[in-house]
Design a protein that fits this description.
The chain has 151 residues and is mostly helical. The protein folds into 2 domains: 86 residues, Orthogonal Bundle (Hypothetical Protein Yqey, Chain: A, domain1), CATH 1.10.1510.10; 54 residues. Helix 2 packs across helix 4, helix 5 packs across helix 6 and helix 6 packs antiparallel against helix 7. The radius of gyration is 18 Å and the shape is globular.
Length: 151
Amino acid sequence: MSALKTRIADAVKDAMRAKAAERLSTLRLLQAAIKQREIDERIELTDADVTAIIEKQIKQRRESIAAYEQAGRTETAAQETAEMAVLKEFLPEAASEEEVAAAIDAAMSQVQALGITGAPAMGKIMAILKPALAGRADMSALSGKVKAKLL
């Protein structure tokens, strides 16, 4: 069992002992998503796979929060925000601005050395950055920064 899955299982037990219903609910949803993927693909997930699932869950919460706030459903948006905070606990430490900038510059120089420029370069650069910064940086913000540098 991966270290991250063990941490999540321990957090579920702690939430049960503390009778923290909202936290427990979020963690169980996360465990269900992990288990579902393992069953569907018939594999044991690594920490990187689990991190990708957590990122996807956070992205879904972010989109839900925006939709709920537009609809004036602040109570539901607050619940989604709380769930997102629980999920973020299991992501690796966020990369600093300097780390992100250095990774972007390195990836850009790598792609430009191959002679690729313009729109095709964007995909190549993101392909290099995604595994390097997975779980440590918001990919949509990252792609915006790359796009700004390419123009």
